[in-house]
Amino acid sequence: IDALRALLGDAHVLLPGEHDLAAYERDWRKRYAGRALAVLRPADTAQVAGIVKLARAHRVPLVPQGGNTGLVGGGVPDASGTQLLLSLQRLNRVRQMDPSNLTMTVEAGCVLQSAQQAAHAAGLLFPLSLAAEGSCTIGGNLATNAGGTQVLRYGNARELCLGLEVVTADGEIWDGLSGLRKDNTGYDLRDLFIGSEGTLGVITAATLKLHPQPRARMTALAACDSLRHAVTLLDLTRSRCGAALTGFEVMNALSLALVAKHFPQLAQPLGPRPWTVLLELSDSEGEGHARAQFESLLEQALERGVIDDAAVAESLAQSQAMWHLRESIPLAQSEEGLNIKHDISLPVSRIPDFVERCDALLAERFPGSRLVDFGHLGDGNLHYNVQAPEGTPPADFLRERETAVNAVVYDQVIAHGGSISAEHGIGQLKRDELAQRKSPVAMQLMRQIKQALDPDGLLNPGRVV
Ligand code: FAD
């Protein structure tokens, strides 16, 4: 602790007893709470490297943390009180903007929304977008390979990153901040660190890919009586609008009912429907063209019986209100109480069969359990969450049923060719599930990589592998 104080200054080594560390020690869902030996707040990459060297010399584990919005318990310390929490929040500068190369280099603790705003101020678009964007950080986004609402057009965090700066488990600094779109010089170290959830190295900065800003963005809601029809609407929209389609989200009736219950001030233009789809077009020709595209698409969908109602946003404020509705679902669920979350991906074509089968099995085995289904249908990612029956305390339901519910859901995910983690990662929540569900060969390779890069197991121990 003395050495850390000498490195960072007393004000940036926060000790339990002297400071309230709850905001660092408890996760967003309030599911995991640990105790940190100390919370460290370095200001730059050199200080991060110094911390890692000290941690290594004293054999003390480190847990990197950005905005602490992760949903799998990956960024909070365990209960032992022996782990250092390494907060990246003070590394928050935009280091470089290169409009001609369509890139910007930002530090790991830069909040996603600030990175979006920096790109916007340069007349460009950084398209990564998710409901936690006001708090999550670029380092956390890359460490979890975050997805969000624009993946079907622009890809996930991995596809938006060209280069990284990383402090290795030895405390060395790897400067891989290249803004190159082509670079075939051996193994792809960048892709190894992306999605590694703080277990292989500490990301300190990244060079990110930017895109031209679309001239207009427009949103619509459409009501479908089944998920099968929602998939047909996706096919139709893709064939008519091509790359202009930048968002395609689905919400089942219960997910919007929870929003109505906990946020009654939010308008729901279509009223209760089995499935509501949120579509977004980003148009390079302007607002008039986007509106015309939407109107003819939705008219055709109505005529074919694919949807039975629709509303196109009349203004930017209405577009934002529609997104707000969608993004309020996790918050409404959180208000309703702890639930059993499944962030899964499947081939889009198999999603309706999966949901039908899984809904039926859960209704039979766990009568009264409530299914809150929503997510990024456009890229095959569903948040298939199971809420306790009305009247059952959520914590009891979670404790008594989680393992059995997970077995039903994940068996069906695998049977339908899917993945048990689409975008939130593994953390502690799915670590044991991963070991059971991933091929033994893949697990062995992952353990060998961990062993090679962090032989002492000091970076985020007990997470992922
Ligand atoms: P943290 O929670 O602080 O950390 C997450 C993991 O990354 C931990 O394992 C941590 O150790 C590691 N880590 C953090 N920073 C670094 C670093 N610099 N170097 C190495 N490792 C690091 N996720 C999606 O993908 N899509 C969504 O649509 C989405 N919606 C969300 C909505 C809400 C309301 C909330 C609360 C969360 C949502 N998330 C979503 C999950 C979460 O926001 C993302 O996982 C996000 O990328 C985490 O960023 P963070 O900075 O908060 O990371």
UniProtKB/TrEMBL annotation:
<dbReference type="InterPro" id="IPR051264">
    <property type="entry name" value="FAD-oxidored/transferase_4"/>
</dbReference>
<dbReference type="GO" id="GO:0022904">
    <property type="term" value="P:respiratory electron transport chain"/>
</dbReference>
<dbReference type="InterPro" id="IPR016166">
    <property type="entry name" value="FAD-bd_PCMH"/>
</dbReference>
<dbReference type="InterPro" id="IPR016169">
    <property type="entry name" value="FAD-bd_PCMH_sub2"/>
</dbReference>
<protein>
    <submittedName>
        <fullName>Hydroxyacid dehydrogenase</fullName>
    </submittedName>
</protein>
<dbReference type="InterPro" id="IPR036318">
    <property type="entry name" value="FAD-bd_PCMH-like_sf"/>
</dbReference>
<dbReference type="InterPro" id="IPR016164">
    <property type="entry name" value="FAD-linked_Oxase-like_C"/>
</dbReference>
<keyword id="KW-0274">FAD</keyword>
<dbReference type="InterPro" id="IPR004113">
    <property type="entry name" value="FAD-bd_oxidored_4_C"/>
</dbReference>
<dbReference type="InterPro" id="IPR006094">
    <property type="entry name" value="Oxid_FAD_bind_N"/>
</dbReference>
<dbReference type="Pfam" id="PF01565">
    <property type="entry name" value="FAD_binding_4"/>
</dbReference>
<dbReference type="GO" id="GO:0071949">
    <property type="term" value="F:FAD binding"/>
</dbReference>
<keyword id="KW-0285">Flavoprotein</keyword>
<feature type="domain" description="FAD-binding PCMH-type">
    <location>
        <begin position="32"/>
        <end position="213"/>
    </location>
</feature>
<dbReference type="GO" id="GO:0003824">
    <property type="term" value="F:catalytic activity"/>
</dbReference>
<dbReference type="InterPro" id="IPR016171">
    <property type="entry name" value="Vanillyl_alc_oxidase_C-sub2"/>
</dbReference>
<dbReference type="InterPro" id="IPR016167">
    <property type="entry name" value="FAD-bd_PCMH_sub1"/>
</dbReference>
<comment type="similarity">
    <text>Belongs to the FAD-binding oxidoreductase/transferase type 4 family.</text>
</comment>
<dbReference type="Pfam" id="PF02913">
    <property type="entry name" value="FAD-oxidase_C"/>
</dbReference>
